[in-house]
Each structure stands twice: as C-alpha cells, then as structure tokens.
C-alpha cells in the first residue's frame, strides 16, 4: 500500500492467503489483482481479476503458472509504457502438493534422484517426544518421496520458464537495468529427513531455510551474504528501495545495504520461529498427518550457529549447527547457552520494530 501511495503501479498475481476465495474483495494497495483461491491443482480454478472471478478449466493453456506468466509480462509492458515505477508480486502455487507439472513437462524428471544427506531416514539423538517413535521409512514410503520430488522438479520447470519470460520482457521494455528481481519462498520442505514423509512445520533447516536470491542495480553477481534475514524484512526493503521513509515501528529491517555489498554494523543475531499445532484441520491445504510431522506448538530461535526450540510441554532441543549442520544431535541436556534462552524470551515478548530489533541481538 505504501508503494502505491507513492506512485508505484502495484500488482499481485497467484496465491494470496489460505482461505481466500476468488469471490472475496480485492485487497487494498493493489492496482492489478489476479488472485486465486484453492488452485494447488493448477487446473480448474478461478482467478479474481480486478474484482471479477473468471474460471479456468483443464486445457493446457489454463495451466496456472503459465497464465500468471502471461499476466506478469503484460503488466510489465503496460507499466513500462506508462513510464511509472512498478511492484509486481507473482506467487505461484507450484511446486506445492499435489505437485502438478505443466503438460509439456510431464515425466521430464522421471530419472531424477532425490539428493539424500545423512539426515535422511535418521532421527536426531535425543529427539523430542513427537519425533521419537518414528520407524525407518518403508520401501513404499521412500518410493513415494522420490516420486514427489520428481513431480516437484517438473512443476518447477514452468516456474523457471516464467522467470525467464519475465526477464526477457524487462529487457525488451528497457527497464531491466533498474529493476530488482527477488526470488524466495514461504517455507521449505523435509522429504525423508528425520524419518518424516514430505511436509513442513518443524524448526529444522529443511523447513525454515528458504532461498532469497536477488538481482538488480548494484547487486554484486555471484555473491552470498551470510547475514540472517527473514520474510519480515521484505516490506521495509522494498520501501527503502523506493526511497520511502521506514517507520520505526515496522517489523523487519531493510536488506538493501546487504544486497548492495555493504557490511552491516550491528546486524541481527537471532531469528524467531513460531509454530502453533497440531495443524491437522480437514480442508486446510497445509494440514499434516503424524507421518509428515505435525508437531505440537513451539517457540524457537535460530542464530548463525545454533537452533534452540522450546515446546509447550517444556521439552527442549538445542543443536550446535556449526559442528552439527544437519541438526542430528540434540545436546539440550548438556546445557543451553544463556544468551539463547534470553533471546527467545525477548523475541517472544517484543511488540514493535524497535524492541524486536533489540531483542534480535544476543546479550
């Protein structure tokens, strides 16, 4: 909304929120609105197109990621011709379950194997109670994991096409040199790690560590930034890049300086992770069964070299990720560093941008 008020053309395309219905009103702050409801299957869905629902069927041209790709490039072209700055968010459903690829990519990854690491089909030492009774994955479960992974790869191929199409459109319209492209996600996915079938909701890095890939003006190519970032940082980052004044009360911190290769002074040292479960309500697209994880409620803090988790029942996990990057040895019984305990309490109880930024620094 802040960018729209400052003169930007704004567009949201694809997934908005779970529970959103295409008959619902257009959310404030957007000039162009092409939001879907439950469109995880990629076909037979409706899009709310600027306030009017339109139905898309099961023809190859109705594949949702491709529809969003066409709408995205059209928005870029119209924005460039109007000589106005723009913000475009394209939120694909792919590669979410049920992992439906574009017809042209069906079976394209039939021979791809899942890259297993040492956490695959292995529980951590001293696991929390909800994880402790897992049996080894059966051959059938492992085959299902491989199949799901292949379908996810196939679904992502259309996303890759979309990104390439957007980049080519930016070049064609002459605005590529002053446009940022930001690629990220809302969650990761474990697939066999810790003896869990494909799912999320845990505090392990498989679930919380998502890509944040950026290209644009003054962003050094091929550079990896080690500093901790969170999705709450995106809004203040976009506002900073637009030249807007950042409110002190806003959650998150601008990442613009980090993207431009600067070394931050006093950057955050801890990230809060929260989960309220079990999350198994029928009809919820993110509902899980026990085999996928479905942990009870917890609060956690992730630092550069540690993960500390406290469950509602008091059970704790502490992993030294510097020496145990796959989080396989829960050493909470040996003692948790007091700065992690303090950071978790502070982050749980802060209530605005200023106090939460202070809480994100270890003492």
Account of the 3D structure:
- With 363 residues, the chain is of the alpha+beta class.
- The protein has a single domain (94-359), classed as Alkaline Phosphatase, subunit A (3-Layer(aba) Sandwich), CATH 3.40.720.10.
- Helices cover 26% and strands 16% of the residues.
- The protein has nine helices and eleven strands.
- The protein has helices at 2-5, 64-82, 129-132, 139-172, 205-208, 234-241, 256-259, 338-349, 353-359; strands at residues 9-15, 32-36, 45-49, 52-56, 86-91, 181-184, 212-215, 270-275, 298-303, 306-311, 316-320.
- The strands form three sheets. The chain has a five-stranded mixed β-sheet, covered by helices on one side. Strands 8-9-10-11 form a four-stranded antiparallel β-sheet, with helices on one face. Strands 6-7 form a two-stranded antiparallel sheet.
- Strand 2 (32-36) and strand 3 form a beta hairpin.
- Helix 2 (64-82) runs parallel beside helix 4 (139-172).
- The longest helix is centred in the middle third of the chain and has 34 residues, at 139-172.
- The protein is globular.
- The chain starts with a helix and ends with a helix.
- The mean pLDDT is 96.
The number of helical segments is: 9
Reading the helices and strands in chain order gives: HEEEEHEHHEHEHHEEEEHH
Query: Which class in CATH terms?
Result: Alpha Beta
Name the shape in a single word. globular
- Given as residue ranges, the uncertain stretches (5+ residues, pLDDT < 50) are none
What's the average pLDDT?
96
Q: Tell me the number of structural domains.
A: 1
Spatial ordering of strands, largest sheet: 4-3-2-1-5
For the biggest sheet, the summary is:
5 strands, mixed
In percent, how helical is the residue content?
Answer: 25-40%
Overall SS class: alpha+beta
CATH level-four homologous superfamily name: Alkaline Phosphatase, subunit A
What is the correct CATH architecture? 3-Layer(aba) Sandwich
The rounded distance between the terminal residues' Cα atoms is: 36 Å
Number of strands: 11
DSSP strand content: 15-25%
């Amino acid at each position: 909304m802040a960018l729209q008020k400052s003169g930007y053309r704004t567009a949201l395309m694809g997934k908005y929120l779970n529970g959103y219905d295409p008959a619902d009103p257009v959310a404030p702050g957007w000039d162009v609105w092409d939001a879907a409801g439950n469109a995880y299957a990629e076909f037979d869905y409706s899009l709310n197109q600027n306030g009017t629902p339109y139905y898309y069927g099961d023809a190859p041209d109705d594949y949702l990621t491709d529809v969003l790709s066409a709408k995205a490039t059209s928005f870029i072209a119209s924005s460039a011709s109007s000589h106005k700055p723009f913000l475009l968010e394209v939120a694909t459903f792919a590669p979410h379950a049920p992992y439906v690829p574009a017809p042209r990519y069906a079976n394209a990854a039939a021979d791809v194997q899942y890259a297993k690491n040492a956490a695959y089909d292995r529980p951590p030492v001293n696991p929390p109670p909800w994880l402790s009774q897992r049996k080894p994955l059966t051959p059938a479960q492992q085959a299902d994991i491989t199949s799901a992974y292949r379908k996810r790869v196939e679904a992502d191929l259309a996303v890759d096409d979309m990104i390439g199409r957007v980049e080519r459109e930016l070049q064609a319209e002459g605005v590529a040199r002053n446009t940022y492209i930001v690629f990220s996600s809302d969650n990761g996915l474990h697939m066999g790690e810790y003896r869990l079938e494909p799912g999320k909701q845990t505090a392990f890095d498989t679930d919380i560590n998502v890509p944040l890939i950026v290209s644009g003006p003054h962003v050094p190519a091929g550079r990896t930034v080690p500093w901790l970032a969170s999705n709450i940082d995106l809004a203040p980052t976009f506002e900073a890049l637009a030249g807007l004044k950042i409110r002190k009360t806003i959650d998150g911190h601008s990442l613009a300086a980090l993207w431009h290769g600067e070394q931050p002074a006093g950057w955050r040292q801890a990230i809060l992770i929260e989960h309220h479960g079990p999350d198994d309500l029928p009809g919820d697209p993110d509902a899980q069964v026990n085999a996928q994880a479905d942990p009870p409620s917890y609060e956690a803090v992730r630092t550069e070299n540690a993960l500390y988790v406290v469950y509602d029942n008091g059970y704790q996990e502490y992993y030294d990720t510097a020496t145990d990057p796959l989080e396989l040895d829960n050493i909470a019984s040996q003692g948790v560093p007091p700065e992690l305990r303090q950071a978790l309490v502070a982050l749980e109880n802060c209530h605005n941008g200023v106090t939460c930024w202070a809480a994100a620094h270890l003492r």
